Amino acid sequence: MTHPDLTFETQGDIAIVRLERAAKRNALNDALILALRDTFQNLPESVRAVVIDGAGPHFCAGLDLSELKERNAGQGVMHSRMWHQALECVQHGPVPVVAALHGAVVGGGLELASAAHIRVADSTTFYALPEGTRGIFVGGGGSVRIPKLIGVARMTDMMMTGRVYNAEDGERAGFAQYLVAEGTAFDKAVELAKRIATNAPLTNYALMHALPRIAEQPADHGFFTEALMAGIVQDAPDAKERVRAFLEGKAPKVSKN
Question: In the chain, where are the structural domains located?
C-alpha cells in the first residue's frame, strides 16, 4: 500500500490514510483514486477504524483538472464507474471511516468526504460543487451521496449557481457532524476513530452496511431487515460479553457530557 501521493500508517487499532498532494490542494487524479481503492481493499485485519486526511491547508480540492480530457460517452461512463468502485470501498469497506476536513472540500473532494461515515470539519473548511458552472456533472457518486447529507434542493443550488458554503453554514446544512477550531479536525477525528474502534466489530459493520440500506427500504422490509440484523449482532460473543458486563454493573452508564 505505497503510493507517492498517499500515505498509510497505523496507530494501534486505527489507520491514518492521508492525501499527500498538498501542492495541488490534494486534487484527485486517477492514480490517486486507484490508490485509495487498493488501500481500503487491503486494510490489515487489526485495523478497526480509519481516519482520512489531507496534507497541507486543504482536504481535497476535487478532480485534478490537468487530467480532464475529452472522452466519448462510453469512456466517460467507465471513468465514472472507476470512481464509484473506489469510493464504494471507502463507504462499504470493512471498518468505519472518519474524514478530517479543512480548507477546500470541493467537487470530487466533497464526493470523497461524503463516502466517509463521520465528517469532522474545522473552521477553515468550505464546500463547493463547481461542476455545474464548468459544463460537467458529478461522476464520483456525489449525486447519490451528497443529497443524503444536505438534500436535493441544496445540491441543485450549489451546482447551478456555484454557491460556496463556509464551515459554519456547512455544518448546519449537514455536510459535517462536528465543527471544531482551526487546525483541530485531525485530532478530533482520531479521537472519534479510537472511540469507534472500541465498539463490537459486528455492530460497526451493521451500522455501515445495514443502516443505510434499511433507511431506503419500505417500512415493512426495513423492520424485517432490522430484526435480522439485531438477531445476528446480539449473537456475537463480544456483544454477549458487553451486555453481561452492563447487567453486572461493570460497564459505564450513559451520562450527559
Answer: 6-197, 201-247
Which of 9, 20, 111, 182 is flagged as catalytic?
111
DSSP secondary structure string, 46-82? Answer: T--EEEEEESTT-SB--B-GGG-----HHHHHHHHHH
CATH 3.20.20.140 describes domain 6-197: no
The CATH fold assigned to 201-247 is: Lyase 2-enoyl-coa Hydratase; Chain  A, domain 2 (1.10.12)
Which grid coordinates are listed for 109?
A: 473532494
In this predicted model, what pLDDT tens digit does every residue of 14-34 receive, in sequence order?
A: 999 999 999 999 999 999 999
Sign of CA dihedral 143, 144, 145, 149: positive
Q: Is 131 a catalytic residue?
A: yes
Q: Is 111 a catalytic residue?
A: yes
Chain-centroid distance, C-alpha 139: 16
**Catalytic site residue from 131, 171, 191, 241:** 131
What is the per-residue pLDDT across 194-209, written as a single tens digit (0 to 9) for each? 999 999 999 999 999 9
Tell me if the pTM is above 0.85.
yes
